[in-house]
Structure formats: C-alpha cells, structure tokens
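So, can you check what follows?
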Amino acid sequence: MNIELPPNLSDSLRLLVDQGHFVSEQEACVAGLELLLSRERLKIIVDRGRQQVLDGQWSDEEAVFNQVDAEICRAEAESGQGA
C-alpha cells in the first residue's frame, strides 16, 4: 500500500525517524494508526458509559467502594484471613 502524505506530515514523519523515535517511517505510521484505533475504541467506551448514565445505570463512587470493601471482607473471611 502506498500512501501519499501532505508535505508537512511527511516532513514530520521523517523527523521522527531521524530523531530516533522510530526505526522507519512505516513503524511510525503503524504507531500512529494504532493510536488512532485506540482513540476510536475509547470513544465507543465513553459513549457506552454516557448512555448508561442517561439510562440510569450508574453507581456513585461511595456505593462502588462499599461493594468492593464488602467483597474483600467476604473473600478474606472465606479464606480464613479475616480480622
């Protein structure tokens, strides 16, 4: 696959390689694409969370911490490590 970049991006890409941030221009492009894909996955997760809040499917932080503490206590009690 050949991709033609605008001159400013092409120059920036070469500079990143010249400065030793990447071994090759291809490696730099792969890293950029991976970052873009990660950002898109994060947007999906945030949108899903936003919809859950709108649908009333959320817990406040105190409730979550209380649940975690209770689970830790239960696990410790089951394993005989409880105080």
Q: What stands out?
A: The longest helix spans residues 25-54. DSSP finds three helices and no strands in the chain.
